[in-house]
Description:
By secondary structure, this protein is mainly alpha-helical. 62% of the residues lie in helices and 4% in strands. It is built from 13 helices and two strands, in the order αββαααααααααααα. It has a two-stranded antiparallel ribbon.
Amino acid sequence: MTHLFELLDLTFRWVHVIAGIMWIGNSLLFNWLDRNLRPSARAAPEVYGDTWLLHSGAFYFVEKTSLAGQAMPRPLHWFKWQAYTTWLSGAALLVVVYYAGGRALLTDPARANITPAAATGIAIASIVAGWLVYDVLWRLVAPRSATTAGVASIVALVLIVYILTSLLSGRAAFLHVGALLATIMAGNVAMTIMPSQRVLVAAVTAGRPPDPALAIAAKTRSIHNNYLTFPVIVLMVSSHFPGIYGHPLSWLLILVLITIGAAVRHILNVRFTFRPWKPTLCLTLAAGFAVLFVVGRPGAGTGGPVSAVAAADIPAHVSFADARSIVDRRCAACHSATPAITDFGSAPGGVSFDDPARIQALAARIRVRAVETRTMPLGNRTNMTDRERVMLAKWIDQGAH
């Protein structure tokens, strides 16, 4: 079964990345087109504007029009399957990696003592509830006050982020916040943008003027998707950065990453009319980096990863034999050519502790994962104690000999 789940993981991840690139690429391109349209030389009320493009050795002419009073052109190209494929493959990945395969644990006893079944329920409920709250706010509240809907959406997001980072493992929490935002994006396409486009096509085909309210609603959701693209991308790749998702203030770091991504997207959106966009972008990136550095530094938000362990309980000198005994008991169950825990395959991440020299060579990495971020063992599946973490830290500090 491990081999099957690994192949499914590879397949769905491959499709997910390709579809995501296509979807986000389309989103960015059409947003760019909207912001670069110029008044058309063809003076007609149905024409919004046009622009010229140069690519792949030729010139392209693009005109944006409502087609009012004109026949429906054939063929007409729709853009939807990139979004649907991205979401469906992402949902399949969550099932394979977290819900069914057990290859990346949802739970972390250091955060909350809940069962895997309860964690799965919380994870799925957060995505469903998050989408429903967002959709209700922008379908029912926004027509009366977009500001109220926007503020309420942010409050709901902060609440969901805090709940997930308190109950799930750090890696799972980050990915599920990303999955929620991606679900909002796909839901916008399926529930608002595509229905409005079908009504638009039906109106033009029947020779009726299209309803501008539907176009405005679709455009609003499209803009939301545009601002969510960068936050979703960073949350999807966050699993490679244990110093972020394993941090005691991980809930705050998620919000910082989302804010930076949305801010950068905004600056890139307005750069055509905002002359000082380059220094503003540099300042935004520098400020975001500074906040991440200060908030995410090891030990921030806590008295230290193992502060509850009394120093008197640790030997004055920790030998390599002491350290290897801990690694053998708590780490080699997975990180070995012949692992006892086979959920992740042999030597996950290419890390194996079968060779003493390899343990010493990876001492710095062991400190980051087992001591500073406490993200290994994954979900503390092998029950590494605080005392053992302190001993590993002391062995490394003494030279890892």
